[in-house]
# Entry
Amino acid sequence: MAWIKVAQVDDIAIGEMMQIPLDEDDLALYRLEDGFYATSDICTHAAQSLSSGTLQEHVVACPKHGGKFDVRTGQAVAFPCVMPVQTYDVEIRDGAVWLDYEE
# Structure
């Protein structure tokens, strides 16, 4: 894995999310009260962009069928989703958001 800079801390408000487009994958970056989290942006059930869905506290809902994932762990928490999404380690360095991601 390699650390890559994906955003500035001020780019995303608490309770918001954003898509991080990368060469091979799209990731979703979430800012919660307790920090930043990142997952794959693709729902494991319907191949939809999670960052186009809704975020309530630590749970993101897919816009297609409403399946939900815990963004802290990637675990599916509401049907029809049963497979987890991949998560990525996040660090804040000098006001920037960095992800541990293999390109």
Observations:
- The chain has one domain: 2-101.
- Residues 2-101 form a domain with the Rieske Iron-sulfur Protein fold (CATH 2.102.10.10).
- Residues 45 and 81 are 5 Å apart (CA to CA).
- The mean pLDDT is 95.
